[in-house]
Amino acid sequence: MISMRRRRRLRHIILSILSSKGAMTGAQIMREIERVTQGFWKPSPGAIYPTLDKLLEEGYVVISKVDGAQKFYEITELGREFLSPKHQLETIIEEVVSDLRFIMENKDELDQELKDKLKKVLQEVMSSLDRS
């Protein structure tokens, strides 16, 4: 579950960078992620390039230029839609639903304190949704 979230986060970061910076190579994207995280995270080529391949396959990016062995990736309109708040909310809701199903399947592992905490948050969510 965690690695799936990391992959989604990496996809979002790559698309955000391409949206703001324009066409870039995989190596440039890695350096930019390292720069914006102030050195806390430098994704490996083994994470970047499969993610770029998946984004390419899904139509979120295109290869806009090839210079020798370097491919320059550019965000598409579909990629920009992926970055929209509506799409991000849909993704988060899917993750929350998945997490809640996991909790339901493993509810016997929860102590009373965690059950109470979860109930409180769920009641707040339901109340908030009823008001909107």
Automatic annotation (TrEMBL):
**Which SUPFAM superfamilies does this UniProt record tie to the protein?**
Winged helix' DNA-binding domain
Keywords, in A-Z order: Coiled coil
Which Pfam families does the record cross-reference, listed alphabetically? PadR
Point out the coiled-coil segments of this chain. Answer: 93-124
* Domain Transcription regulator PadR N-terminal span(s) in chain numbering: 14-83
Q: Which PANTHER family match?
A: TRANSCRIPTIONAL REGULATOR YQJI, TRANSCRIPTIONAL REGULATOR, PADR-LIKE FAMILY
Q: What is this protein called?
A: PadR family transcriptional regulator
Q: Which organism is it from?
A: Stygiolobus caldivivus
- Gene3D superfamilies given in the database record: Winged helix-like DNA-binding domain superfamily/Winged helix DNA-binding domain (1.10.10.10)
Task: Write the lineage as a comma-separated list.
Answer: Archaea, Thermoproteota, Thermoprotei, Sulfolobales, Sulfolobaceae
